[in-house]
Design a protein that fits this description.
Helix content: 40-55%
Order of helices and strands: EHHEHEHEHEHEHHHEHEEEHEHHEHH
Bound molecules: 5-phosphoarabinonic acid
Radius of gyration: 23 Å
Shape: globular
Distance between the termini: 51 Å
Structural class: alpha/beta
């Protein structure tokens, strides 16, 4: 994996926009202190996700556990939300063939189908339960805290559906992934004898894709989780480099921070040119937003800081958002992910009688066209003075995807120090959770503020 960052720097753009090169030099000088802070905080117990790159025993245990279970069930139903769902979705889309659930048993190499419910929209939940056979399903309920309203509500609905169909055998169809000691799910697992996997207490939800949270569902559908973690280890090793220019995660986060705070580029777009990485962009959006969007800094000063991440996909969004990226305000940095060898290509047939202006498409390939579109968009943006950079990924193997995911997590950890905020808390999300329970009338939880006159200011 390589980070090509030249097109963030002013002298590689139009000499007017972009980060002046001296800013890069300033970042490099400051980096020693940033890295020392990361190491210090790591020693104090923060940054627990680094350890997920060296967990051979856990990976072996999960793989063995999944192998036993995978043969007994032909559908995996994952219940979770936020950090307990987005990583799993990213892994499955990136590392399983497209339209996985539509493939027959042979096409899936006899691994189960997987449905992930990360919302409480009744239409989606009801439709999923109509589609899935409760006798053949394994339900993985994932919640680090064990008390998130959406996940617990899903669980209650699914549990009744299982009880109705299976009676006393229902609990054998359940695995909980949750805190080793705390929370409602842990208590339920203990009292009902439900199988569990542990979320390491020092790993936050949005940093947990390479913990049992993402690894169990991934292993169940046949993803090589050992290779995934090996790739992550590669990213961690590179993030130890003490020179900023040799440390892609620290450099990426430093450049984006400087672009945001020094020249007003507050919007950070992630745009893979690959459908299979579309959900990685959605996963990154949560990671970057929830980690860096903060009211106070580490010193407790009110700062209301944080970049706004945007998920996009090439070439599709060339016909949607790219007009804005090219000609709108200079408030964005666009990060492309370009896959050198996407694994499969489709020739575009030549055909007699095609009008001259489109005849050149014949004889190319779809992969070649996608690549050309990425290259043209990146170059055109640069010509217009628009900051962009590229993460060049060699392929879509588990190693490369593991490296990519860990790279973004490391970058987020470094970004916490550049921004001076705690990237591992989420007081705003917690407030939302408390108000939800308050609105449902749970004792001890404050109700949300009453709506202003509901009819005022409506159109
Ligand atoms: O990153 C986070 O901490 C959050 O997005 C959580 O993952 C999300 O709120 C779900 O929490 P839990 O896993 O405790 O159910």
């Amino acid at each position: 994996m390589k980070l090509q960052y030249g097109r963030i720097i002013q002298d590689r753009l139009d000499d007017e926009h972009g980060l002046p090169r001296r800013r890069l030099e300033e970042l490099a000088r400051r980096f020693g202190a940033i890295q020392a802070e990361v190491r210090e905080r790591q020693a104090e117990g923060e940054y627990g996700f680094y350890a997920l790159a060296s967990q051979e025993t856990t990976v072996r245990q999960i793989a063995a556990f999944a192998e036993g279970l995978g043969q007994a069930y032909d559908h995996v139903l994952v219940l979770g939300i936020g950090g307990s769902a987005l990583g799993t979705r990213a892994l499955v889309s990136a590392l399983r063939p497209p339209a996985w659930n539509e493939l027959d048993d042979e096409g899936r190499e006899f691994f189960p189908r997987l449905t992930l419910l990360d919302n409480v929209d009744p239409g989606t939940v009801a439709a999923a339960l109509r589609r899935i056979d409760p006798r053949r399903v394994l339900v993985n309920v994932i919640s680090k805290s064990g008390g998130t309203a959406e996940t617990l509500a899903q669980y209650l609905v699914v549990r009744k559906w299982l009880d109705d169909a299976l009676g006393g055998a229902a609990s054998r169809h359940l695995v909980f992934t949750t805190d080793p000691e705390k929370g409602a799910l842990r208590a339920l697992a203990t009292s009902e004898g439900i199988a569990t996997l542990e979320v390491p207490p020092d790993v936050g939800g949005r940093f947990s894709v390479l913990s049992p949270v993402g690894l169990l569902p991934a292993a169940l559908v046949g993803i090589d989780i050992a290779a995934l973690v090996q790739g992550a280890a590669r990213a961690v090793a590179r993030a130890e480099a003490t020179g900023l220019l040799e440390n892609p995660a620290a450099l990426y986060s430093g450049l984006l921070w400087a672009a945001d705070t020094q020249i007003g580029a507050r919007i950070h777009v992630l745009m893979p040119y690959s459908d299979r990485l579309r959900d990685v962009a959605e996963w990154f959006r949560q990671l970057w937003a929830e980690s860096l969007g903060k009211r106070v800094d580490r010193e407790g000063r009110v700062v209301h800081t944080g970049p706004t991440p945007v998920a996009s996909v090439g070439a599709t969004d060339q016909h949607s958002q790219v007009q804005l990226f090219m000609e709108g305000p200079f408030d964005k940095v666009i990060t492309f992910v370009a896959v050198t060898d996407p694994g499969e290509d489709v020739p575009i047939p030549e055909r007699k009688g095609m009008p001259e202006e489109v005849a050149c498409l014949g004889g190319q390939t779809l992969g070649g066209l996608l690549r050309a579109e990425y290259e043209a968009t990146s170059a055109a943006l640069a010509q217009m003075g628009r900051m962009n950079c590229t993460i060049a990924l060699p392929d879509l193997s588990p190693e490369s995807v593991g490296e990519l995911l860990m790279f973004f997590q490391l970058a987020t950890g470094y970004a916490g120090c550049w921004y001076g905020v705690n990237p591992f808390d989420q007081p705003g999300v917690e407030l939302g959770k408390r108000l939800t329970f308050g609105a449902l009338g749970r004792v001890g939880f404050e109700p949300p503020p009453p709506p202003e006159d509901a009819d005022a200011d409506t159109a």
